[in-house]
Amino acid sequence: LAGFNRNWDPRRLSVDTFIEEDGATELAGAGRTNEDVAEFLRRLALSEIFENVTLQETRAVEVEGVELIGFKISARVVY
């Protein structure tokens, strides 16, 4: 029954790092809120492109005077 929020605006989140090697993937970036990070994580987990999607870390970060939620996510790419 897991679904995603159709009203979510993906511009509320940025992916700053995407590293992939032999299918192992690490993404890092920042979202406006914890809910934005959770929605991105949910969408990755529901995707047919990624598997084993795991939130590794969240932390408060400040970018140009704006408080954001930094994140690191690991996953496997399905080739």
Characteristics of this structure?
alpha+beta, four-stranded antiparallel sheet, 79 residues, globular
Q: Which segments are poorly predicted (pLDDT under 50) over 5 or more consecutive residues? A: none
How far apart are the termini?
A: 26 Å
Global mean pLDDT:
95
How much helical structure, as a percent, in the residues? 10-25%
Our Rg estimate from Cα atoms comes to 13 Å
- Widest β-sheet, arrangement of strands: 1-2-4-3
Principal-axes geometry comes out as: globular
**Biggest β-sheet strands, sense, barrel:** 4 strands, antiparallel
Estimated share of beta-strand residues? over 45%
Order of helices and strands: EEHEE
Per DSSP E runs of 2 or more residues, the count of β-strands stands at 4
**If helices are DSSP runs of H or I spanning 4 or more residues, what is the number of helices?**
1
Provide a descriptive summary of the structure in words.
It is globular and about 40 Å long. The mean pLDDT is 95. With 79 residues, the protein is α+β, with helices and mostly antiparallel strands. The longest helix has 13 residues. A hairpin with a 2-residue loop joins strand 1 and strand 2. The protein has a four-stranded antiparallel beta sheet, covered by helices on one side. The chain contains one helix and four strands; from the N terminus they run ββαββ.
